[in-house]
Structure of Ig-like domain-containing protein:
Amino acid sequence: MTGAKLRLPLRALLAVLAGALMISGCSSPPTNPQAKPADPVAKVSFEPGAGAQRVNPAAPISASVQRGEFDSIELRNSDGDSVEGKLAADGQSWKATEALGYGKSYSWSGRATGDDGKQVEVRGEFRTVNPDKTNHATINPRDDAVVGVAMPISIKFDEPVEDRAAVQRALRVRSSTPVEGSWAWLNDEQVDYRPKDYWPANTHVAVEADLYGLDLGGGSYGQADLTTDFDIGRAQIVKADVRTHQMAVVRDGKQVASYAASYGKEDDPGRNTPNGTYMIMAKHPVEIMDNPEYHYRNVRKTWAARFSNHGEFIHENQDNIAALGKVNNTHGCINLSAADAKAYFDSALIGDPVEVVGSASEMEPRYDVYDWLLDWDQWKAKSAL
């Protein structure tokens, strides 16, 4: 029929539209060839951080991984030497078990796998501090020593220490019998520890000095850590009253000996045995003595126990036997007979106190070992803390 319009039934039109929608809904979205794969979830971190400079070689060194575990991990220095360390049981952290060296570069290597199954490389570098100089120190008493109740703990450095407070913070003293004690700087190269009163007899003492990696100031660092474990022996004290012409020995609270003695000449200050609390510093079966001021050299005496670096000893002097127990006429030493000097010598320990009283003069606290010449407040005032 000419000019007639084509009419579709309504039901047919809806069917055509529904088919078109179904075709559109089942089609896939277009792909993006530029899409980036997801990053691995494992994250590795270091202490110190990668790229760190002037790291303290004694500081804790570690690596850890979040959302994963280490498959392998290693830390090497610039010489290719591997640093000893321990991987945690869960595989998520590693710690160095040895101190590092001064002035060295270190690099990490290894791999970690995340909980997404993807691996990441372990990489990072850092460098330790390179000191201008290192300062060597020694500690006394040594391991396993048995010493007297006046024995101080002494740490001596080869060079002056600028940051004394830093040193003291690195020192620890433990004793089997608790004591009140303090460190004191006798000079800029020596720090000593002593209790307020004498050590209790038969006490065990342990000392730790964490000096390696410690900044001592002035570009100097500690060369090595120090430790010592020693024991205090019985409590033996020399009671030396110059007015009595006797030298008494008190052991564990009881007098066990009294020896006829001669002390320093009383009317000559240069020959006094000065008042003060000292300690036995050294023992020698034979001592060669010199005193040019009083015109004697190469004098041989036996059973000599030094108790002051001013020059005082307890020793044998058979040549002065007539004065023992009667007259004070020595050059400052305590003279005994040969038999008595040997008996005392055999009983003495390094660190035994020697208490001198009744003299016309006092000992100036400056002759190397003067720990017990200071009262407790004076001693504490020499602490850097």
In short: The first strand starts at residue 43 and ends at 47. The chain has three domains: 43-127, 133-233, 236-367. The two ends are 118 Å apart (CA to CA).
